[in-house]
Amino acid sequence: MRSKLLDHLVVGGGPAGLQLGQLLQAAGHSYRILESGSAPGTFFRTFPRHRTLISINKPHTGTDDPELNLRMDWNSLLSPDPGLLFTRYSKRYFPHADDLVRYLADFAEAFKLDIAYDTRVERVRREDDGHFTVTDQHGHEHHARRLIMATGLTLPNTPDIPGIETADDYATVSVDPEDFTDQRVLILGKGNSALETADSLVETAAVIHVAGPHSIRMAWNTHYVGHVRAVNNNFLDTYQLKSQNALLDGEVLSIAKDGDAAGAAGRYRVRFSFSRADEVVKELSYDRIIVCTGFRFDASVFGPGCAPEMAINGRFPALSPAYESVNVPGLYFAGTLMQQRDFKKSTGGFIHGFRYAVRALSRILDERHHDRPWPRLPLDPAPAALADAVVARTNRSSALWQQFGVLGDLVVMVPGEQARYHEEVPVEHAHGSQLTEGRDYFTVTLEYGPDHDKVDPFDITVRRTAQNSVDDAFDASYLHPVIRHFRDGELLGIHHMAENLENEWDDPEVHHAPLARFFARELEVSGTAAEPDGEPAVRPATADR
């Protein structure tokens, strides 16, 4: 018997799948989540291998504002239940992964989400009428008008190196440091999984080399939390203080595994081309090699005619600004796969970023397929009232804070009417969408300066913009609000609000007054200026959505 045709089928019962399921359920849409494991969050039952998350957890922030608290809570999902927060599951700043697994299970149970466990997708096909048929390992078929992949990156991103198949992989290697006692260990990769692994072996391994073709990038410098985090950088200390460990810059050309001949220097012989030594090639010997080079999306389940185009060296599906496949209509992506849109620039690959992107996706689905417009609030179009609204939102919003430069609020001008305030719209989606078509509109984002990752943040000799300096605001490198004026996707004006050490952009003279003048100037030039009507400004409220 044919199963029911659902509005939405979600593949993956991790954080993104649960977040989307809760939103679809609240909106009254028919949906089902297919999860390969026996409970939510299968990925986090194994990863990270050494079980310490790098997503921060800060229960004590000095405020009881739930929206502000989400700026420092990187693990909670968005929920109408104010008590369903990860901060109640652990007080550790870098929590144990098992605590996240417990939280996800409780989230699914709290909302009684429709999840089919132990259901592994083996084939996806697109029917002639456009709907999707998904076949699981039991031979059961699931049908839906839209398919949303929330599986994350599940396959090892193994580099093409002769002999690499003989090495250990991050996903399966022993995590007992004693298994590496007195051994020479080569770790391939320079990200968090590589440094996490290296840190775990510092006390037992004789020599540890961490190798890769690119320089290590620190998250404190780039503000991309996927770059190396301080919690994983103890190994760098041992390298710089000459404790037998080293970073190798260059490429592995080949790996050969020795036999058990007596006197062999090591189990592996590695030909390595050094990038900072005039391409010198040396042969190095190691007892163990561990491949920590990340993951990629598994597209093998898609049949002919519905395989998504891939991007970023084949690691991610290529997405439109609406998080839809660029070549398969109706195929959407949620969770860490969304980072294809902001790869290594913002937070789309992590819970504290994609929870908001998933909410945006749910609104896009409502717009496109359920005839439900993006939520909006009416707003007095007078410049001072617009400035009031923007100052209020930028000083409180967690979405703009976490998805900096990617999600933005929209202020859409409608001649002769109240302005329309839309929250948390993907900026690239806003341009050319029905929300802004044929109108003047302003985007409101939080952003770092364009060269923020090129300056040592701890170098006191480097000139920085002064705090609360209106004159220096355009050159601010730290996080600050940026307001842009567009018409039909064309940039007409831009205003940077002065940065502030405490991230408080609410000074009447430094922040509000210059912003109100910007609105007045832009509206006058565009011909959409309106006289204040004497009514108090309507300030968008973040908490009640």
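^ that was protein a. below is b, sequence first then the tokens
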Amino acid sequence: MPDNSEAKPAQPGIVAGNEAVRQRFAFDDTQDLQDARRGFMGTAPDNVIRDADGRAVWDLDAYGFLDRECPDTANPSLWRQSRLCSDHGLFEVTEGIYQVRGFDLSNMTIVEGKQGILVVDPLLCAETAAAALALYRGHRGDRPVRGVLYTHSHADHFGGVRGVVTDEDIAAGVPVFAPRGFLEHAVSENVYAGTAMSRRAAYMYGAALPKGERGQIGAGLGQTTSTGSVGLIPPTVDITRTGQTETVDGIRMVFQLTPGTEAPSEMNVHFPDHSALCMAENATHNMHNLLTLRGAQVRDPRVWAHYLTEAVDLFAASSDVAFASHHWPTWGRERVVEFLTGQRDLYAYLHDQTLRMLNQGLTAPEIAERIELPPALERAWHTHGYYGSANHNTKAIYQRYLGWFDGNPAHLWEHPPVESAQRYVEFMGGAGEVLRRARQSFADGDHRWVAQVVNHVLFADPDNAEARALQADALEQLGYGSENGTWRNFFLMGAYELRHGSVGTPTVTAAPDMLAALTLDQLCDALAIRVDGPRSWDADITVRWNVTGGEPITLRLRNGVLTHVTGTGPAATAPDVEITLAENHLRDVLLGVLPPDELTARADVKVRGDAGKLGELFGHLGAPDMDFAIVTP
């Protein structure tokens, strides 16, 4: 269990702020509590889900402390949301549709057919998905899986697929449905920038944080990410248009494609025989991210709002329940319409008001400080910023339209963080003077300023023990006051790593299945981003792969850039070495499984030219850092 003994009590200003939240909102509204517990059938007898080696990957009872009254060290609104998300077990959504909730960050939905079941979004890891399926079968019988459906391209909605089906099942005809573009986006997001995203996700979800009143209490969208085996089975049926219908085991489905909303490849699904609408992750019981704090491409709130309007037009009149792959369902046609249109208005308002202020000359931080939701939207619990926030979403919209530069030439060529910090600290009279004044600001309750200014001291001198301690204390207080679950986790993870050192990356999504799904083009692109450019400026190496049964691929390292050409056109320059091999061997060497010298020594691989050039080429590659620093340089 991670050590949290250094966590401090909440300061008076944080206590007062949290009390103000308690007075401001309708905590006596129990509708969400009723909906979150409706249809409960039971939960797993074993509270801890383990992998094959006995390592715990999920603990169902880790959040039992949320049954207590909200303490001073948590925002009451986030505590309420986390309490709702922590309910775990099997729930009946409507006749023939069930959800397993609280077994991972996401929900797994099960739709019963004539003989078997359709599994929708099989969680993040195989272990939690298998436990969820076992729970369902314990209550509803050992029905075979007749189909799998991925609503979108984020790993917490497909990573556990091997816990519910096998490759043999797929070969025997079990279909895997997914929206157009799913595989490209699923693998590219988790591979190209996967190292940085996964490291930052450790902060965003706080999976390694101690859980408790002064630690991790949830992430708003769900509690946290599981830490088991992430896999991927490629789709066998692509959904390519809105209105497309498919049937599996007698289960009829009507699809609505929603690209560019919560994910670049996403879709909603209507089950007409059940009068039920699956909203994927496009309408959940919180404000979602337009730019997730772990990092991603900015999402389009204008398009998101459009697709929510379209969902109402297409399906609301024939939907008695709407459910998603996070949180709890909404029942009743009037309530479904109110929920979907409220979510629509939320994203449209953020978009339009950001653009209005942007066109008045306000910058992203200024817009983020000024934005206020209309009272009717603010009163609705499902618009609260538990996962996304109005603050960072408006900055994302600004970034989408105008990018990082705010137009002020003073910001066009600033010094990088360490060099800036050294100058700031010197101008402010040295580290001792900065810390003296920062301690006073801390006592005055201005923790936000303390974190901002002490950050300069830390980047000027990361070994300054007094600065590390004060910064940890300031970040901790900011976490205690945050309504947003991911903000709280970021603040508390920063404090934790300053006190205890790095936790690394608890959940890695660039798993073997993900890598195996990469095309050869994508593998070559992934190799190119590992080239150490400055070390490779003078290199000029060309390797041609003659792939058995496929077109040749020519790799050339020149000017610090690794390019590849498929085929034998003019861009394919003459090689220094030509290697004829099977595709599986090429994949192994590109993925680093097979060293270059072992590849060229194989009897079934033919080499013509200078074999040493292959090892020379790979010598110019660097390795990503799974443990890079975040709160220090």
